[in-house]
Amino acid sequence: MKLLLDPATHSALERQRAEALDDEPLRFHGLIDRWARERTGRPACRADVRAVLEPDAVLFTWLPTRSALAAALAGRLVYLHWGFETTRRLKRTVLHTVLRCARAVIVNDPTSAAEVTAITGRAPITAPMFVDADYFAAVRSRTRGCTFFCAGSNDRDPAILAAMANAGFDVVWLCNEPAVAATAVDAAPRLTVISRITSATLRDHYATSAATVTPTIRDVHAAGQTTGLEALASGAPLLLSPGRTAALLGRFPGVRVVHGGPENWIAAARDILASPPSPVILGAAAVAAAAHVAPEAVMAALDEAFAAAGTPPGKKLSQRMRFLASRARPDR
User: Fold this and answer.
1) Structure confidence by residue, pLDDT tens digits, 67-106
2) CA gap 172, 107 in Å, rounded
3) Nearest CA among 52, 39, 56 for reference residue 5
4) Could you say which of 3.90.1570, 3.40.50, 3.30.160, 3.30.310 is the CATH number of the domain covering 2-130+295-327?
5) Contact 58, 302 (CB under 8 A)
6) Where are the domains of the chain?
């Protein structure tokens, strides 16, 4: 088997290979590459539409691209489903086709699992989202301050972060999307927006903040799943909006699901400062998070998915598919 990654993911993997830094966590695409090396004897390779139609190729992706569609129709796709926007009809149609035709579909959260079953009529493979728990646990004993930390930009709610800051809390928002950050930079004097920080600095923010907060504006995917698991692994309290991520992480000790608007987030922040979770509770959360994201569990799910992908699809590509493959260009 030749494991392919979509161009964006493979580029991130190449950067990680080139840097090979000691003080960096193992990322999800790095774990996928490790699986490929251990199970197939060769590293993960870059995909394009032509590559996914090679006889022994299997594409792994979470992006509904042309390569994913071609691989799905060819019976050579393992797809990781994180949810989707339903307002764009063409994108919805492509994604439904990808999900129905993929050899295996992986999900990380129960909402996405129900979604896949409703669309395809079959149960997906459930796998934990991988984070390097050992890396983030390395600073778990540090003293916590009074700052609230929000990591990430996907569907985060700037209005709630600004409201918390205007209520007197110091809030730091890690946002690598300038257009998103611009909406909040001048919103509140005590809201600080940072970007492009090192992994070690990210780890320090998790370890020293009063809590990690993830207010979201919509629930079309598991926003904050990765950062939430990183925060829990570091022993941080976690405040979440209800939705997919809360359905997955709300069961962990030290996690509070905050319903409603800014006033409820402000009240939750006051509660955290007045009565922070005990080190015992946060330690239990870190242990539970580490068990949840164990590499062995993720690798076992990948074994199951790629075993399904390695079986013959049953029908040869139609002449139309072969024609499309001959005309295809790589994803841009």
Assistant:
1) 889 899 988 999 999 887 666 788 888 899 999 999 999 9
2) 30
3) 52
4) 3.40.50
5) no
6) 2-130+295-327, 133-292
> Which H/E stretch holds residue 230?
helix 225-233
**Percentage of residues of the chain with pLDDT beyond 70:** 90
Widest CA span in the chain: 68
Is the pLDDT reported for residue 111 higher than 60? Answer: yes
- DSSP for 137-202 reads HTTTTSPP-S-EEEE--TTB-HHHHHHHHHTT--EEEE---HHHHTTTTTT-TTEEEE-S--HHHH
Give 106's DSSP letter: E
Residue 140 has pLDDT above 80, yes or no: no
The pairing of strands 77-81 and 255-257 is unpaired
Categorize the per-residue pLDDT at 332 as very low, low, confident or very high, splitting at 50, 70 and 90: very low
Closest CA to 32 of 60, 6, 53: 60
261 compared with 185, residue with greater pLDDT: 261
Query: pTM here?
Result: 0.88
Name the helix (H) or strand (E) containing 19.
Answer: helix 7-19
> Comparing C-alpha atoms, which of 222, 298, 285 is closest to residue 28?
298
Beta-carbon-side half-sphere exposure of residue 327 (alpha carbons within 13 Å):
6
* CATH tag for 133-292 (out of 3.20.20.150, 3.40.630.10, 3.40.50.2000, 1.10.10.10): 3.40.50.2000
The tens digit of pLDDT for each residue in 5-36 reads 999 899 988 887 777 666 789 999 899 999 99
